[in-house]
């Protein structure tokens, strides 16, 4: 599957998703900063996906392994089985397809930069040789405790323990 075809599949699967609740949360002055950061992250991803077009001859229109796409879908399905009510099917689909977009098309972290994951642990990026290298303070920790699913394996972030000083 080409990147262009994957992008069209992503658009088709999220086009009807209502981002208004995220927009309300982002504007609500009573909403905590972490929730606002997540809401803005989802809004940004939705808008970016819906506006992006990849031409057939674009150099970013590369071959993407369909098995990898399906592996991400399966992994997120296992994740949602353990933590999300069935009534949120549209949300699950939105998260699944934005994760595929971030992992395989834009190669960016699955969580917002600067989000407090736990006790000040975060996702961050550093410029190296003109490119941003992303790190996550909990990726290594998650790999050790993951039992039923490990979605971090599809995130471009490197464990912060690997960060070069």
Description:
The chain is mainly alpha-helical. It has two domains: 1-106, no CATH class; 108-165, no CATH class. The chain contains six helices and three strands. The protein has a three-stranded mixed β-sheet, with no helix packed on it. The chain is globular, with a radius of gyration of 16 Å.
Mean pLDDT: 91
The tally of helices reads 6
Question: Which percent range fits the helix content?
Answer: 40-55%
Q: What composes the largest sheet? A: 3 strands, mixed
Main sheet: which strands, in order across?
1-2-3
Features:
165 residues, mainly alpha, three-stranded mixed sheet, 6 helices, 50% helix, 8% strand
Layout: helices, strands, pairs:
Blueprint: H1 3-14, H2 20-27, H3 33-51, H4 66-83, H5 89-106, E1 123-128, E2 131-136, H6 139-145, E3 158-159
Parallel strand pairs: 2-3
Antiparallel strand pairs: 1-2
What's this model, at a glance?
The protein is mostly helical.
């Amino acid at each position: 599957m080409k990147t262009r075809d994957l992008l069209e599949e992503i658009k088709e699967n999220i086009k009807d998703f209502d981002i208004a609740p995220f927009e309300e949360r982002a504007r609500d002055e009573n909403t905590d900063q972490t929730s606002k950061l997540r809401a803005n992250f989802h809004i940004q991803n939705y808008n970016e996906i819906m506006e992006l077009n990849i031409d057939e001859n674009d150099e970013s229109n590369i071959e993407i392994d369909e098995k990898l796409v399906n592996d991400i879908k399966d992994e997120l399905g296992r994740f949602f089985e353990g933590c999300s009510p069935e009534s949120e099917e549209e949300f699950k689909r939105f998260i699944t397809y934005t994760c595929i977009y971030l992992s395989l098309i834009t190669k960016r972290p699955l969580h917002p930069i600067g989000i407090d994951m736990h006790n000040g642990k975060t996702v961050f990026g550093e410029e190296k040789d003109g490119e941003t290298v992303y790190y996550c303070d909990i990726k290594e920790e998650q790999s050790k405790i993951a039992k039923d699913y490990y979605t971090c394996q599809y995130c471009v972030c490197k464990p912060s323990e690997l960060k070069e000083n």
